[in-house]
Amino acid sequence: xxxxxxxxxxxxxxxxxxxxxxxxxxxxxxxxxxxxxxxxxxxxxxxxxxxxxxxxxxxxxxxxxxxxxxxxxxxxxxxxxxxxxxxxxxxxxxxxxxxxxxxxxxxxxxxxxxxxxxxxxxxxxxxxxxxxxxxxxxxxxxxxxxxxxxxxxxxxxxxxxxxxxxxxxxxxxxxxxxxxxxxxxxxxxxxxxxxxxxxxxxxxxxxxxxxxxxxxxxxxxxxxxxxxxxxxxxxxxxxxxxxxxxxxxxxxxxxxxxxxxxxxxxxxxxxxxxxxxxxxxxxxxxxxxxxxxxxxxxxxxxxxxxxxxxxxxxxxxxxxxxxxxxxxxxxxxxxxxxxxxxxxxxxxxxxxxxxxxxxxxx
Amino acid sequence: xxxxxxxxxxxxxxxxxxxxxxxxxxxxxxxxxxxxxxxxxxxxxxxxxxxxxxxxxxxxxxxxxxxxxxxxxxxxxxxxxxxxxxxxxxxxxxxxxxxxxxxxxxxxxxxxxxxxxxxxxxxxxxxxxxxxxxxxxxxxxxxxxxxxxxxxxxxxxxxxxxxxxxxxxxxxxxxxxxxxxxxxxxxxxxxxxxxxxxxxxxxxxxxxxxxxxxxxxxxxxxxxxxxxxxxxxxxxxxxxxxxxxxxxxxxxxxxxxxxxxxxxxxxxxxxxxxxxxxxxxxxxxxxxxxxxxxxxxxxxxxxxxxxxxxxxxxxxxxxxxxxxxxxxxxxxxxxx
Lengths: 362, 336
Prior knowledge:
- Chain B: Keywords: Amino-acid transport, Cell membrane, Membrane, Transmembrane, Transmembrane helix, Transport.
- Chain A is mostly helical.
- Chain A contains 16 helices and two strands.
- In chain A, β1 (about 175-180) and β2 (about 180) form a beta hairpin.
- Chain B is mostly helical and about 325 residues long.
- In chain B, α4 (about 40-70) packs antiparallel against α13.
């Protein structure tokens, strides 16, 4: 069937990501850029104030982690899922329902160390079930079905008052407070987010080289061949959804702690599409892509208004700017910012340096 | 039809029983016990008619969507934007000239033109690249949505129903019997019935055009095997442009209908994009009869659901989609 075939070709990077990943050992260990980024991220609280720390960097890391779960599915599994934000939102809702909040008749008041695993489990189950549904279809149909799931969840949270408290959502969700530290204070929270994001990043990077990840990439490239080799194609795909759901769920927990509230607005269809935009803009073939995309997105979202006003335009046209930027990226680079960067690197390198040798991208 | 009965006797029996029950519910005078159990008959009939007419509206949007996909494999996720654009154009025309009919014509022409531009400028460059088309049309829908928000603001617009269609009409369906023994008949807005009739006629005309005319034959051949059709000397790019114009124009017409039935505001584009997605997933991609069946099912589920189980109405729609996917992943009427 040509539909799925085409979709898969598009997802694979033109720079042949697969052989490079198989060839390298530990990722980025001898890449100075990666070390610099890591050190900057670690000492960030020393150089940034609370606003930048939370509104820019922690938000980037949270959105990036949700987009990372999409990147995992799309880049390694060939399945573009638009419901990753929905899973994160579901997990956030579950944290609010099982934990403590202002809505005493909904929240069960469990301590956070019980509520969070429960929420993560439920979110993983939810995402896996949605994935089991989505893998029945391929290519463009997967996008449509996951979009429909996301939309159904949004409208459901809007209408359901018994669990999700309708369109007002659940407010004043309690955040963890132990060992004498308020973990939602700016600096501790930043480190919590950083640790979670780093764990997710390295987990995805590890899985992509583990047998499961290699089999998943095989399924992406040629499902019939993998089936003939004895791999259960659908089981691998559903398992990929389970992993991605867990990652998205983790980000959802962080999000509800960050805003201390969750409402249908945070799981709206537009927000689901934003995650896709983030992943595509950053680059969908490597785990670092979603974080780059998230940084671009958050910076634009935060500063576009001021910027537009400064150059004499209406500040409300922020979404127009995002949409046009997204269009430009999709038109000119199928591999997002990373692809642009790699192309630039290649054009500025001596001819003798072959792509397989250099591994210091991004 | 007979083949379906032969192949699935159990399903056929269930369908026949369900149809019989619904017909009885529509035409019979309800016994008192039933009214106590599920509410008044007038409510039921209204929900039924609302569902069917909403299905007509969904069909107008989804048929264009599915036609474009079926022939060209073009995934146009900006289809909802075309709907909203048509609605705004229709509103502007009917507000300035006062002519409801004219607003349909202008909306059809303008959205068809936008569709042609989309086909020529965007889709022709990325033929066969589904994912890229999806991304680009998502980007376009964001840009369109913001441009329309810019131009029209966040207000709700409603297109004025023309005088000759205002007001309810009495249908020969008894909703209740008064204590004096005098029957009470159902009163229903005329405009919705007229529009539903129009969408049935449009659907039937499309079916006729696809199945009985030469251009329809070309289109169907293109759906099955584009390359061979091109090799036989048909100028397929022109066919593509025509079909895209028709599909987009239908979305524009649907926008005017939606603006008359309901209202126009930012966000409706996504709502109708999703509705057409669900409709064609249920009915089967690329199939006009499938779009009709899917639209009817989803419209009915939405309206009956919102009357009888208001909290879970959306979930019913979703469950239908899940059920169809589980039993027939290609959709109810798709040929495979």
